[in-house]
């Protein structure tokens, strides 16, 4: 009888766990956000811009390495929504206490959104360069233009070489 009880207990445990998993009531799953079925990839330029592609929309900004080299950012000049840029063309500039630098489009496209928060708080780039500190969102004309950009591993190697 005790082996039957043990089998039933294991079955009920498994069933309860499965029910919890599929209901989203386990601590692990309840803390997770819904899984996106869209694929996002990040690419980098040798000039230290990044583009995070999600479909044909690219979120563009400068990397953490770039903001660190610039120092405290005090002003960011951004384009207007609807402006079009060719890959490699300057779309704006960043001014810091150390220097000013142009920012270049990593892909050809049309600006569909700008990060208007940067007008009042350009320092966000110093603290969150590759997340909240993004500059523009571009609708890419040809997402395949990212093929000749650097992946994360290649970009890390570039930064290590430049830092030494």
SSE inventory with pairings:
Elements: H1 2-23, H2 27-30, E1 40-44, E2 49-54, E3 57-62, H3 64-70, E4 73-77, E5 84-85, E6 90-96, E7 100-104, E8 109-114, H4 117-120, H5 124-128, E9 136-140, H6 152-163
Antiparallel strand pairs: 1-2, 2-3, 3-9, 4-6, 5-8, 6-7, 8-9
Summarize the structure in words.
- The chain is of the alpha+beta class.
- The protein has helices at residues 2-23, 27-30, 64-70, 117-120, 124-128, 152-163, and strands at 40-44, 49-54, 57-62, 73-77, 84-85, 90-96, 100-104, 109-114, 136-140.
- The N and C termini lie far apart (71 Å).
- Termini separation comes to 71 Å
Order of helices and strands: HHEEEHEEEEEHHEH
* Count of runs of 4 or more consecutive helical residues: 6
Biggest sheet record: 6 strands, antiparallel
User: What percent of residues are in strands?
Assistant: 25-35%
- The order of strands across the largest sheet is 1-2-3-9-8-5
Radius of gyration: 23 Å
The number of strands is: 9
| pLDDT averaged over residues | 83
- The global form is globular
Helical amount among residues, as a percent range?
25-40%
Low-confidence stretches: 1-38
Q: What class would the helix/strand composition place it in? A: alpha+beta
């Amino acid at each position: 009888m005790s082996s039957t009880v043990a089998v039933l207990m294991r079955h009920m445990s498994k069933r309860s766990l499965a029910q919890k998993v599929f209901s989203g009531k386990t601590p692990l799953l309840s803390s997770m956000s819904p899984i996106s079925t869209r694929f996002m990839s990040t690419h980098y330029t040798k000039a230290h811009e990044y583009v995070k592609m999600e479909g044909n929309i690219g979120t563009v900004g400068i990397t953490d390495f770039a903001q660190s080299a610039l120092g405290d950012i005090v002003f960011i000049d951004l384009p207007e929504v609807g402006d079009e840029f060719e890959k490699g063309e300057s779309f704006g500039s960043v001014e810091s206490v150390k220097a000013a630098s142009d920012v270049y489009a990593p892909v050809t496209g049309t600006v569909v959104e700008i990060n208007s928060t940067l007008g009042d708080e350009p320092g966000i780039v110093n603290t969150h360069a590759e997340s909240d500190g993004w500059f523009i969102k571009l609708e890419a004309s040809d997402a395949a233009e990212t093929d000749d950009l650097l992946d994360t591993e290649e970009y890390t190697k570039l930064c290590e070489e430049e830092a030494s």
